[in-house]
Fold this protein.
Amino acid sequence: MPCPEGGSDAAGVDGCIHEAAGPLLKLECSTLRGCETGEAKITCGYLLPAKCVIHAVGPVARGKPEPSDEEELKNCYKNSLILAVENKLRSVAFPCIATGIYGYPSEDAADVALGTIRMFLEENTDKFDRIVICPFMKKDEDLYLQRFPQYFPLDTDDDSDVYVSELL
């Protein structure tokens, strides 16, 4: 879940989540004392159908990510997955972190997201029942569906459930 560094005067996907969750989410976020780029924090889901919301601050790349931006984006996914495990959450859904107003190129971000999730699952094989990628735009959905088999090839012995959700 993307969340602006230092608070939640939210825009983009983050703004939609805050609006759907209701005012108690903003109130709880104000108690978190900010969130650094690459860090993740957890709150209740309030009016959302999710029990919890994991907030992660993606890097502001403005179309030209630096090597440090890639590491921070990896940390967003890794730290979110760690928080989910620590809180015994068996499923998690991710938007395409940092690709909207933060300007991280979608192609690069997809590789970072899928690669990081794959590496985490290799070390934590029994921690999740389902991980869902929820693209906001059709171009991102197409991109993830194209890249997905490179990171998660079909394997009849593989019990991991990682999905790219279809846009409604």
